[in-house]
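REQUEST ID: PR-0412
SUBMITTED BY: lab tech R.K.
PRIORITY: routine
TASK: structure prediction, single protein chain
INPUT:
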Amino acid sequence: MTAVLLAPILCALTWALPDGSHFPVKSKARTEGVTAFEAQWFGKVLAQMNEPPLPEFAKDVKADVYRMMILSTWGNSILVRVEKHGTRYSLSARRLGGQAGFELGKLVEAKNIELSAEDSKTLEQLIQRVSFFQLPTDDGVLGHDGEEWILEGVSQGKYHVAKRWYASSYNAEKRGLMAFLRLCKFLVDKSGLTERPMNKRHKLI
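STATUS: complete
OUTPUT:
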């Protein structure tokens, strides 16, 4: 893997997002999206990491972009974004120094990497096995503490978001999260970040 600088992709909005939000908010008229509280919380993390709203990328039908966040109540916020360029993927990883459930802290680590042809092929297979665009946004398992795992994706002009509470430590196999977790683990492994996702000093993946 070699470090690279990634140029931002500028695309028009595919739908109207709430002012300052990175996420569509679900309502009676729109079932796709997150709650207003989640949109504010998740969006604040993304803004602190200088990350763009992913729905903007969906205007380009050729765009293939996926972004994972792990937000631990008592741990650093971790983000990994991958973008496809031909047959290869580039990877951007970010980490904040605070705790996602309290003070987010500043951006303390940023990595930009071009994945090898072999890693890009593996990533492609992992994405396919998740059947991401068929995943419900929420699987109904909720909690007040722990971690939120958020996976966004854009492909063929479509945007989708799926979030899972306690993905790695609460009935992962029963909830059908093994493919989801394998993708997340691969992204963390290839991120180059010096700290793995943790909560109360316990590694999550």
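NOTES: The chain has one domain: 31-203.
REVIEWED BY: pending
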